[in-house]
Amino acid sequence: MKKQTVVVLDFGGQYNQLIARRVREHNVYCEVKSYKTPIDEIRAMAPQGIIFTGGPKSVYLEDSPRMDGEIFTLGVPILGICYGAQFLVYGLGGEIGAANADSAAEFGRTDCNMDTSSPLLKGLRKKSVVWMSHNDYIKKLPEGFRSIAHSDKCPYGAIENAQKKFYGTQFHPEVNHTEQGFDMLGNFLFNVCKCTPDWTMENYAETATRELRAKIGNGKALLALSGGVDSSVACKLLANAIGEQLTCIFVDHGLMRKNEGDEVEAAFADSGVHFVRVNAGPRFLSKLAGVSDPERKRKIIGEEFIRVFEEEAEKIGKVDFLVQGTIYPDVIESGLGDAAVIKSHHNVGGLPDYVDFKEIVEPLRLLFKDEVRALGAALGLSDKLVWRQPFPGPGLAIRIIGDITPEKVAVLQDADAIFREEIAAAGLDRNINQYFAVLTNMRSVGVMGDGRTYDYTLALRGVSTTDFMTADFSRIPYDVLEKISTRIVNEVQHINRIVYDITSKPPATIEWE
Ligand code: XMP
């Protein structure tokens, strides 16, 4: 089945992924492509609609990103956003001017008047707040265009050429600050492009299963299962598609959270795949004995992980396919065009050279994180795995400050489990993006019963964040913190003091090491 596609043409703006996510939230499939993509490639995709994103440049500069003018002759509806709208105007013979603070430049929330007779703005309120962020402005419209929205400063807040189905918004409909932005995008997709909302994870599961079967045939595939959302969903999808042709290797380094290794095993042991759990805890702990430096801990764990995986993979012999849990943001961030290169993600660039395989399979390559979760739910994975918060590869090793011993691991596992239980009981588990306990290396004096104690201080950390690059500490209610504290000191030995970390990132990081 050929799926309908909307192309999001990336001109290097900061909200490009957000545009794509909003389109998919309308259950319409879209792909982000660089503005450098050859026009024939775009034509071959037979898109139902095209969206030009924003971008940091001025469209009239020599080196600004531009698309071949042929894009306007494809007969496909176009929505230009911010720079995209300016490019549309410029490319069709209109004029763009440089605004200054006194004239048409606008930043932030702006009142806008809408002409709801336009298909783009149909059914919306006539006045609403939009999010503006532009230095340049549309000075003169090309022939055939008219204004369909304006603010005090900006006569061309949104524009249309209804006959050609070309639309532009100077504001950003994709951000939440634009009150009716989601509906505007919906209007473009359904009123203008006539898309059908058929992009659902149930459909995706079906199609992907079929395609994986066709691709893998009778071949053998290998997957490193960490128990994280991405590898778990990839595993479940592959299990449905090829069953025992898939081997999953789950390296349990003994530094998982309490019972987590067993939970992962329980979720996959009967799923029809060849499931290998390697209980390598003692091996990792002996390598880590006496090591306090965080980066050395990471390095040791990373290297040991590869050794264990390699040994197991060798027992299986040559495999045809190595499965990776790469997701769409990794693909986008690894660089669609010059402007979009943010970082080179390890999942996309570097392939492991320690496994003998012919080809790589990335069944989640086109999905955003929220879609991966929805797919997991559609495939019947438990909430626990689907909603698992991020957990660092080195596990509790970087949450035990100083050297690591089996006793400390057990203390931290118990304390962390109580923390998580109480956060879930308070109904906060989906509001706090990451929360965990840290066993600090500090001991202090306490009094328990009639006796003096000299034991460890436990730190609790909870953060709210969207991208984990910056984070704010979570305002966990005092009564919840009190309950957690009381339970931990009563139920876990060797902890006599508990502190809550009230630093944000920056200046702190989320993890303590
Ligand atoms: P930081 O501590 O850098 O953490 O603010 C940001 C996010 O990255 C996770 N993290 C790691 N993940 N290996 C990983 O796989 C690591 O060595 C590592 N260090 C930090 C951290 O849990 C948070 O989600």
Describe the structure.
Helix content is 32%, strand content 24%. It is α/β, with parallel strands linked by helices and 513 residues long. The strands form 4 sheets. A 9-stranded mixed beta sheet has the order 2-1-3-4-11-10-9-6-7, sandwiched between helices. A 5-stranded parallel beta sheet has the order 14-13-12-15-16, sandwiched between helices. Strand 1 (6-10), helix 1 and strand 2 (30-34) form a beta-alpha-beta unit. Helix 5 (201-216) crosses helix 6 and helix 14 (406-425) runs antiparallel to helix 15. It is globular. The two termini are 48 Å apart. Xanthosine-5'-monophosphate (XMP) binds at residues 298, 390, 392-394, 434, 468, 505, 509-511.
Largest sheet: 9 strands, mixed
Number of helices, where a helix is a run of at least 4 consecutive DSSP H or I residues: 15
What percent strand? 15-25%
* Percentage of residues assigned to helices: 25-40%
Query: From the helix content, strand content and strand pairing, which structural class follows?
Result: alpha/beta
Annotation, overall tally of beta strands: 20
Q: Report the mean per-residue pLDDT as an integer.
A: 91
Tell me the strand order in the biggest sheet.
2-1-3-4-11-10-9-6-7
What small molecules accompany the polymer chains? xanthosine-5'-monophosphate
Shape: globular
The unreliable regions are 337-350
The rounded Rg comes to 27 Å
Give the distance, in angstroms, between the N- and C-terminal Cα atoms: 48 Å
